[in-house]
Amino acid sequence: MNRFLIWVILGLLALGIWSGAGCHPLVWEVYERVQGEEGRKRPEAYSGMRDYTLYAPDPAHPEHTPFKHIRVNVHFVNSADSSMNFNFPEGVEEGRRLVRSMNALLYDNRKPYLPKGNNIPALPLRFDLVLSPRPGDPADSTGIYFHYDDDLYDYIAYGKDMNRSDKTVVRRYGVQLDTVLNIFVLGFNKDSLVSPTYKKHRVGIALGDALKMNSWRHLEGGCWESAKLAVHELGHILGLQHSWGRNDGCDDTPPHPNCWSCAEPSPCDTLCSNNVMSYNTYQNSWTPCQIGKVHYRFADLKSRTRRFLEPDWCEWHEDKTIFIRDSIYWQSSRDLLGDVVIEAGGILYLRDCRISLPAGGRIEVQPGGKLILEDCLLRNSCGGSWGGIYVGRKGSVKGVVEER
After folding, report:
1. Where are the domains of the chain?
2. What are 63-119's pLDDT values in tens digits?
3. How far is it, in rounded angstroms, from Cα 313 to Cα 315?
4. Strands (E), 149-267
5. CA atoms within 13 A on the CB side of 130
6. What is the CATH number of domain 67-298?
7. Residues 183, 72 contacting (CB under 8 angstroms)
8. Is 146 in contact with 88 (CB distance < 8 Å)?
9. Model-level pTM greater than 0.85?
10. DSSP 8-state assignment for residue 25
11. What gap in Å lies between CA 182 and CA 233, rounded to an integer?
12. How far apart are CA 213 and CA 166, in angstroms?
């Protein structure tokens, strides 16, 4: 036989064309779930197990934890003579600088110092902040506001006139408190600043739907050091406790003496922390449990912090498709932004969780792929309709959906 013809035949066999295997078209079938779209429990009950590590991003597949955006605005509260805080237009850039600096800290998670010699990974946080002006209001293009009020301009942390936990300024000047986290930047008290015994320092407090902090206008270290304080208070709003004790709900935050710096004498030279929820000069580390705890609250339909998120999971995003190519186990609720494609050899096991797919979003089980469902609620969390489960078949090779 002609040598050229032999090579052609071998090539066709390798491609499956000569044998006819490659002639089978890819056929999709809609899978009708036995458990039904409503699951076995109310949607609110599918918050998953209270094992926060199940919600921490997978370092091998960080995209499986959809990125979240927390809506914020910034208020500069000043004295009537405008001398105690930033003013427009300088304050607009200062407000933006604060949010940029906070995001820079959120994007750059560091490995924890404690315990010494640990192998705890520095996982990506998978969330950030976005300035959110009033929608549809052409006069509000920045989400940064200025108020002049001699009764409310100052943050007094201690003493008989202490107002650190007072929410009057929040109630009076808050904007979109039901959906946007309001950051209030207050000035120092005028009388305190002229006192020779007064020591200026950074202070802040988390107040549920808002946080208060003093202005960096009169402080050394500028906006960057104040951003560390603001991120610490943000951690409280997202459900985290101080990490130096024994009751913060995370096993990867060991107790420590809460030293300000590793340069301090013993025991600080070996027991200093860089955790964001401790009082230290670094505040640049979030542990996997802390990150998981935040995402647990993001996914909890009853959580107060969920309402601060941009609900971008309502609409389908073509570039947010998740591809499953190995064995993946999800026992944590999540709000996906696109389709899920389970490729040949891939297995996706969903157990005791709520999975929200965007409008029209679908799960594709390609030939050779497998989807396992065990008491898992699949739905669109925005009141719309998702696209369903499609099972592919090509010749004798089919995708598999198994319900347990």
Report:
1. 13-48+316-403, 67-298
2. 999 999 999 999 999 999 999 999 999 999 999 999 999 999 999 999 999 999 999
3. 6
4. 181-186, 204-206, 210-214
5. 16
6. 3.40.390.10
7. yes
8. yes
9. yes
10. P
11. 12
12. 12
